[in-house]
Write a structure and sequence with these properties.
single chain; Nucleotidyltransferase, domain 5; seven-stranded mixed sheet; six-stranded mixed sheet; 19 helices; 24 strands
């Protein structure tokens, strides 16, 4: 039985999305996907969760074998569903979270845990590069700002803190590369979008950056082989194929990073159309027809495919802040709502909306977990500013929600400047965007229309679209993206938008004014953690 012998009838793409806490797999009907680009193409889904471990404060790791096993078990679960026939599958494609790093020996055995994007152990190395004046040039060459999340900084940490492991490592790879190696063996392969997030890839040269490698203390031979996101692998290990329930010769598309694929899946590739995703964290991204590193070092720029790059910035201040508001400010209300069968988050939003736009002059810097774009400051901390006796918990809730979106607006302005023109539409996705009230809040703060991307799994849909191009089933990614449907267009409400325009400059001034104090209080907090250990 061959995976590419389908000469007629329905054709199915399997998309595998390796996320931070789960792997999601879906089966998409290629014919419907080409025509609609939305969730109507999805005929089956499966998912398996896994933990994000914090063995020490600020260190976030995972077991790479547990993730690889989760990928395989989710694929098996998908193929057991009646809606999916293996005979109809024409290919498999991958999406994955970025910035992960692990060391492996010559036999592919992990020497370290998987160090995730959230890990902060290398913060001092990122800070040293910034204070030493090297960060701006690194960002210009690699297209990614210097931050603890980048494998560049993580390698510098490993070199100095785990020298025996560092020297013993045959290769340094990420999670997708490890999964593909388990499936195929041979050399490790990394697509250009994931490589773009390492801080080790030269954006203009399309190869590993020699100066960044020198900083990390490695040569290119210890990194994966670079490949296009549309690169197709064949010849799966027979034991893996048997375990998955797939033919060994099924075409497997290397795929790309989840962020750029989320833009593709949301149809946000046109000029002036940005994707805003707010899950646990958040991001703003826009498509470009050329590579364009941000001269001010605020944004990333990653390549998805020839003629299609994405510029944008991730924020830490997303749903994690909403969860903090729920658990720390209104736990009793959240518990009562849950007991009544009401979503606790709906209750939070309803309470917040009882106050006026601008929360009567209360602003929130929602940097409770440090911040990435546009500041790239691991020491940034949360602030409520303007608090008075007239404010109550409803104002705090509203200011917190507004603080999340004001932070995204700061990234969106940088994105628009890089793209060379204003944003004319935001396509929103993620758990935050499920709320109509919060989509309206986004439109009011961004000052442009916000539509709901009509797909629940934008990254996986994007991976399926990429497979259509790679397997010759489609002519262009932009053509596929143009078919994506949106819903519930929200226009800015002029009165509310005017309030946010008035308060936004005050919001922007706060970070610069408080940055030195952030560094001092973060150092004090780290001392508390060490003294408690």
């Amino acid at each position: 039985m061959s995976g590419n012998s389908n000469s007629g009838g329905r054709k199915i793409i399997i998309a595998v999305d390796i996320g931070t806490t789960s792997v999601k797999v879906l089966a998409a009907d290629a014919g419907i996907l080409k025509g609609s680009g939305d969730m109507t193409a999805v005929i089956a889904k499966a998912a398996v969760e896994y933990p994000l471990n914090e063995p020490y404060p600020g260190r976030f790791e995972q077991d790479p074998d547990r993730i690889a096993d989760a990928v395989e078990s989710s694929v098996r679960a998908l193929l057991k569903q009646d809606a999916v026939s293996v005979d109809e599958i024409i290919g498999v494609s991958f999406s994955s979270a970025m910035h992960s790093l692990m060391a492996v020996d010559a036999d592919g055995v992990p020497l370290t845990a998987l160090i995730t994007w959230a890990d902060l152990r290398a913060a001092s190395y990122a800070g040293a590069l910034r204070s030493g004046g090297q960060a701006a040039e690194i960002a210009r060459r690699t297209g990614v700002p210097v931050h603890a999340m980048t494998p560049l900084c993580k390698l510098m940490w490993l070199r100095d803190h785990e020298p025996v492991t560092f020297q013993a490592a045959h290769a340094f790879i990420g999670v997708k590369e490890y999964v593909l190696y388990r499936w195929f063996g041979g050399s490790y392969i990394m697509d250009e979008s994931v490589a773009g997030g390492t801080g080790l890839y030269n954006l203009l040269e399309g190869d590993w950056d020699s100066e960044a490698l020198a900083l990390a203390g490695i040569d290119a031979g210890r990194l994966p082989r670079l490949a296009a996101s549309t690169h197709v692998l064949k010849g799966m290990r027979q034991e893996t194929a048997d375990a998955l329930g797939l033919p060994a010769d099924i075409p497997v598309v290397v795929g790309a990073a989840d962020g750029v694929l989320a833009n593709l899946g949301a149809g946000a590739v046109e000029e002036g159309v940005a994707a805003v995703t707010v899950g646990t964290s958040g991001a703003v991204r826009i498509g470009l027809d050329r590579p364009a590193a941000d001269e001010k070092g605020r944004l990333f720029c990653y390549k998805l495919a020839d003629g299609l790059w994405f510029s944008g910035g991730p924020v830490n201040s997303g749903g994690v802040v909403l969860r903090w508001l729920r658990d720390k400010l209104v736990p009793a209300d959240a518990q009562d709502a849950a007991g009544s069968g009401v979503d606790p988050y709906e209750r939070i939003v309803a309470l917040a909306m009882e106050t006026k736009p601008g929360a009567d002059g209360l602003l929130c810097l929602a940097h409770l977990a440090g911040e990435r774009a546009p500041h790239w400051d691991e020491d940034a901390r949360g602030v409520f500013f303007g608090l008075s006796l007239g404010h109550d918990r409803r104002h705090l809730l509203r200011a917190g929600l507004e603080g999340i979106v004001l932070g995204l607006r700061a990234v969106a302005e940088a994105v628009a400047a890089t793209a060379g023109g204003p944003l004319r539409e935001i396509r929103a996705s993620g758990g935050f965007a499920r709320s109509a009230a919060l989509r309206q809040l986004m439109a009011d703060i961004f000052g442009c229309p916000v539509t709901l991307a009509d797909t629940e799994e934008a990254s996986a849909i994007g991976a399926a679209m990429l497979a259509l191009l790679a397997l010759g089933e489609a002519g262009s990614l932009r053509g596929l993206a143009s078919a994506v449907q949106t819903a519930d267009r929200r226009e800015p409400q002029r009165e509310a938008a005017d309030v946010y325009d008035r308060l936004y400059p005050v919001y922007r001034s706060l970070y610069d004014a408080l940055a030195p104090a952030f560094a001092d209080i973060a150092a004090y907090q780290r001392g508390l953690v060490r003294s408690d250990a």
